[in-house]
Amino acid sequence: MRTGEPAWLLYGASGYTGELIAREAVRRGMRPVLAGRSRTRIERLAAELDCPCAVFALEDHTAMLDALQGMTAVLHCAGPFSATAPPMMQACLAARVHYLDITGEIDVFELARGADDRAQRAGIVLCPGVGFDVVPTDCVALKLKEALPDATHLALGFESRAGRSVGTAKTAVESLGLGCRVRREGHIVRLPLGALTRRIDFGAGERMAVAIPWGDVSTAYYTTGIGNIEVYVAASPRTIRRMRCMNWARPLLRQPWLVRALQRRIERTVKPPDRTQREANETLVWGEVRNAGGRLVRARLRTADGYQLTVSASLALLAEVIRGTHPPGFATPARLVGADFVTTLPGSSAIRLDTP
């Protein structure tokens, strides 16, 4: 670490998104501790970027606590987060180190919310989801809540043609057996895959969209207090039909052996987007709130490709947390930095509101 620079650790630094963040952090003059379980890959990257490194598995609680000594914050980028977030979050609570990650998994957000009291006592911030998976939609949700304070229903959605990393694809496989999830009257409920569809104009003409178990089903509730929440992604009719056909196999898709087999296949076959593909893509974000009287307010936003946004958003939110001006405890991104935060990120437009 440079003298006077707060020390922070980037776990999963040799993964697709983790490496993008590591390289950008170094380009900005930062020098994080690069960490992960693969000694060869971590030490190679650390040598190239001239950063300190730490090698440990998340199952080794003692080694993890040793690595966190002297750290101010952890930016956790190793998924699937359903398996990796709990041990890292527990270690951060024990070591009194701020915890951030780039998940979009509902259960991880709920876990962090459940640890709010412990985080307050430890004097640390727990802020999962500091990447694409919820930052743009979380900001849109808060902007809509400010525009219609008595809103009772919130729908969010996005359209993106970007490819997926291996980690993202492996996380998606884990979610198949759980089906779709939405929030009804404050409670998270499960629905069959493909159960909810609607046509949405994300900003480039109407598209068919299908509800998915996106992280905002959790986070938007804590950001806005709105009790009815659905999240949609643009999808072709063929994709929606496939989702519906998969419902018969959901019990099978919850079997660990099958999930592992599918994830191994992903490791062999999925090719993440390269720089040219990332720079050529943008994401269209949409949101809508409705109150008991039927009044509607809609919002639209354009952002950079999800991976580029994750890099810029995670580093900006990390800097905010390290600055130490925010109260300890669980936080959603928009509650931490405000509804307009996403508009400050490279490639983002203003959030445009309209009342139909």
Q: Which key features would you list for this structure?
A:
single chain, alpha/beta, 2 domains, seven-stranded parallel beta sheet, seven-stranded mixed beta sheet, 42% helix
Protein described:
There is one protein chain. With 356 residues, this protein is α/β, with parallel strands linked by helices. It has two domains: 154 residues, NAD(P)-binding Rossmann-like Domain (Rossmann fold, 3-Layer(aba) Sandwich), CATH 3.40.50; 183 residues, Dihydrodipicolinate Reductase, domain 2, CATH 3.30.360.10. The chain has 15 helices and 16 strands. A seven-stranded parallel beta sheet has the order 3-2-1-4-5-6-15, with helices on both faces. A seven-stranded mixed beta sheet has the order 10-11-12-7-13-14-16. It is globular. The termini are far apart. The mean pLDDT is 92.
